[in-house]
Amino acid sequence: DSGVTQTPKHLITATGQRVTLRCSPRSGDLSVYWYQQSLDQGLQFLIQYYNGEERAKGNILERFSAQQFPDLHSELNLSSLELGDSALYFCASRGPTYGYTFGSGTRLTVV
Amino acid sequence: SQQGEEDPQALSIQEGENATMNCSYKTSINNLQWYRQNSGRGLVHLILIRSNEREKHSGRLRVTLDTSKKSSSLLITASRAADTASYFCATDLKYGNKLVFGAGTILRVKS
Fold first, then answer.
1. Beta bridge pairs of residue B36
2. Is the minimum CB–CB distance between B99 and chain A shorter than 8 Å?
3. Cα-flanking dihedrals φ and ψ of residue A85, to 5°?
4. Which residues are registered as beta bridge partners of A109?
5. At a CB cut-off of 8 Å and minimum separation 6, what does A109 contact?
């Protein structure tokens, strides 16, 4: 157990639907990062939050959004889902040193 | 585009042999990290080397960093079948709040 919890582990949904992925960072970590891993794009950085505020944005589609709550957990919302959104979505948290800790991921399948 | 490029893309060796993977990157970094991923599962942090370090060891792992050439290598000595996995280098950018991953090397260790 890395200390970063992601739920659900697997998600199957239909095109056009909306889903929410949840991440609880390691205790004490203020930063949360979201990554998408697909076969054709590899591991792509999506977005970073630090103590509730958005800090960095990567290749995140407009159909996707995220937020970090006061208790530091984060949610990634994916809407109007397309087949190409099928991927493994990782959350990572980072503490005061340089260490990143990744969760086990949510596997999203859009059918 | 991804910051890191790795080679080889795939590597197949016999148990007991050494495996070397290389990573090149483009911009200034705080540190470089190596991760392992077993078939579609979570990312496991292996080792981190800071920009002012040249070599680091952890068990059977040896990482080198050449900031003048913007390159790193990961050596796994006396490989085991259990080392079969994908290996990714990730650069913690000096300017930018994120880890940028390479495309990865698929290592297969045959017993």
1. B44, B87
2. yes
3. -80, -10
4. A12
5. A10, A11, A12, A13, A86
Whether A100 sits inside 8 A of B40 (CB atoms) is no
Whether residues B98 and A45 touch (CB distance < 8 A) is answered with yes
pLDDT tens string A19-67 = 999 999 999 899 999 999 998 888 999 999 999 999 999 989 999 999 9
- CA gap B85, B69 in Å, rounded: 27
What's the CA gap between A86 and A80, in Å, rounded?
12
Neighbours of B59 (CB within 10 A): 9
Which SS3 state, helix, strand or coil, does residue A83 take? helix
Residue of A nearest to B35 (CA): A102
Q: Which residues contact A87 (CB under 8 A, 6 or more apart)?
A: A36, A37, A38, A41, A107, A108
pLDDT tens, chain B, 111 aa long: 456 688 999 999 999 999 999 999 998 999 999 999 998 788 999 999 999 999 999 999 999 999 999 999 999 999 999 999 999 999 988 877 788 999 999 999 999
CB proximity B2 to A under 8 Å: yes
Handedness of CA B102, A29, A102, A72 (dihedral sign): negative
Distance CA A3, CA A111 (A): 31
Nearest to A5 by CA among A71, A91, A78, A66: A91
Tokens, residue A47: 């977005």
Of the candidates A94, A82, A45, A86, the one whose C-alpha atom is nearest the C-alpha of residue A66 is A45
